[in-house]
Every structure is written in structure tokens, then in C-alpha cells.
Amino acid sequence: MTTVLGLIGSARKWGNSEVLARQALLGAQEAGAETDLLRLTDLHIEPCIGCMRCAIKREPCPLDDDMFTLIDRLRTADAAVLAAPTYILGPPGAVKLILDRMLMMVPYLDELTQQPKPGLALSVSGLRPWRGTALPFLVTFLQGFGFTRVNSLACYTPGPGEVLLDDALMERVHDLGRQLTQEEGSPPTPETNVCPVCHSDFFTLSADRATCPMCGLQARIEHTEDGIRLAFDDSTGYEGHWTPRGMRQFVEEWIIPSGERFLAHRQEIKARRTHLES
After folding, report:
1. Is the CB of residue 92 less than 8 Å from the CB of residue 124?
2. In this structure, how many other beta carbons lie within 10 angstroms of the beta carbon of residue 128?
3. Ranges 174-183, 199-208, 218-227, 232-241: which has the least confidence
4. Has this prediction a pTM greater than 0.85?
5. Is the dihedral of CA 57, 59, 63, 68 positive or negative?
6. How many CB atoms within 10 Å of residue 145?
7. Tens digits of per-residue pLDDT, 32-56?
8. In Å, what is the CA distance from 140 to each residue of 33, 81, 145, 153, 247?
9. Dihedral angle at the C-alpha atoms of 101, 104, 109, 114, nearest 10 degrees?
10. Residue 222 to residue 150: CA distance in whole angstroms
11. CB 127 within 8 A of CB 133
12. Measured between alpha carbons, how far is 269 from 272 in angstroms, rounded to an integer?
């Protein structure tokens, strides 16, 4: 039986994030799944100290907190829902603290690439123009933990629990929860000018190209009668920065060599910093 883990990135109980997460889990339950709910704000998560032991040496993180518990919960889940509000144009601190510790998944990369798992990211903001970057960060969170078939939805409602007044939204989230129980298939194509890998709608521009800063996918900038259109490079088989295969490439081609380079120049760096210590 499919097990679906719901994650709430908000400290407000029965706020919009929790309502949406529960609605998606209800859809999964009605499709026959077992479900569980976890508030990220109930976990004790320490800030990353940048020691890189997990990535370079494949050693356990030295921080004594709840990250290993969270990783175990996510590894054993068949699917996941992550719902969180938008705080100052981005994800709340509880989500970002965990994202900063994402390299702890490096020892599990072989395991994560064996079986694609579905995930659902739900962001909440009061107004669409203030949606910021929360949603693609939530998608990245799920991808980094091995949920590579990720769907997403940006939800807009101002007051706590007001999503309950939007029948169409609640029905859609319920249906997205049911879809988490499907063994095959991929998320629907995102709307126009939205990255098909991480669902970001912000890009860096250079000449006639647009690059997604979240996952690195590129698109051609085309001018049509209806305005600007981003024609994305074929994303079939593309590995974003924070998918399991993308993480492996990042570690092997950048992180490990950077560690070796630092060791080679460590004494020179130490000598050059002496004037800053006075």
C-alpha cells in the first residue's frame, strides 16, 4: 500500500498550509493510501555549518538534531506533500533550514535513483504579484529528497484557513492528492513560460537565452504575436541541479575537486588572512 507523508512548513496550526496538506492527504486516503502528517516546525533542525563531511567524506553529519529522523521518514514514504506559506517572497525558515542541509542526502543517492517517487508542492501567498520564489524552492526540496515526479500548485488566499472558502481550489488539491497514488505517469506540463523541471517562473537572461537559476534548464526567447515565449530545451532526461542525479554530478564534478583545491592552497590562504585578524 502506498504511504504518503504530508509536511507542513508553517508554524500556524490549521492555517492555509495545513488545510491544503490535509486536503491532499484526504484525496490520497480515498484512493487507498496510508497517510501521515509532520509539522517541520516541530523538528529541531540546526543551521548547516558548511563542514562538507557528508558530501566529501560521506560521513554522518556532526550536528545532533532531527535531520536524520526527517530523512528516514522521507526515505520510507512512497509519496510526499509539502505545503508552506510565502514569507518575504520566499519559503519560511523551517523549510530553508532543511534545504541548507540537503547535501546530507549524498550517501543515499544510489537509493534515490532506483525508484522515482511522486511529490506535490503547495505554496500559499496572499497575492499573486507577491508569490516570490517559494514554490520552486518547495519543488527543489522534494526533488532533493528523491521525489522526482513532482507536481506543484501556487495558491493565493490572505487569511488563515480561508482556502476552505475556495471550493474549486480545494477540489483541485484533493485531486492532486489522489494522483500521488498513481504508479506511472508524470506531472502535467506547467503553464507557459514556467520551467518544466522545477516549476520556477523567474529566469536570468543573456542574449536570446533564458536560464532557470533553480535547475539550470535553458530556453530560447521567442517573440510571438502574443508576446514573449520561452521555448525550453527538450527536458526529457534532463537532470536539474537538485534531482538525485544532478546532485551526484554536482558533488563529483564540483564539490570534491573544490575540497582538494582548498587543501592545496590552505597554507597560502591562512597566511593571507593574518592581516585581517589584527
Report:
1. no
2. 8
3. 232-241
4. yes
5. positive
6. 26
7. 999 999 999 999 999 999 998 988 8
8. 24, 13, 9, 14, 11
9. -80
10. 27
11. no
12. 5
Maximum C-alpha span of the chain: 66
Question: Which residue has 544532478 as its cell numbers?
Answer: 246
Residue 122 near residue 138 (C-beta atoms within 8 A): yes
Fill in the amino acid letter for 232.
Answer: F
In this structure, what C-alpha cell is assigned to residue 199? 516549476
Q: Pull the grid cell for residue 148.
A: 522526482
Sorted by where each starts, the structural domains of the chain and their CATH numbers stand as 3-188 (3.40.50.360)
The rounded distance, in Å, linking the Cα atoms of 164 and 176 is: 16
Confidence of residue 24 (pLDDT cuts 50, 70, 90): very high
pLDDT attached to residue 253:
87
Phi first, then psi, for residue 154 (nearest 5°) are -95, 125
Write down the H helix ranges in the chain. 16-30, 67-76, 93-99, 109-112, 134-144, 167-179, 244-250, 256-272, 274-277
Instruction: For the sheet with 149-156, list strands across it.
Output: 34-39, 3-8, 79-85, 118-125, 149-156
State pLDDT tens for residues 124-154. 998 888 888 999 999 999 999 999 888 999 9
Residue 5 pairs in a beta bridge with 36, 80
The residue length of the chain stands at 278
149: which 3 cell numbers? Answer: 515526479
Q: Are 181 and 26 in contact (CB under 8 A)?
A: no
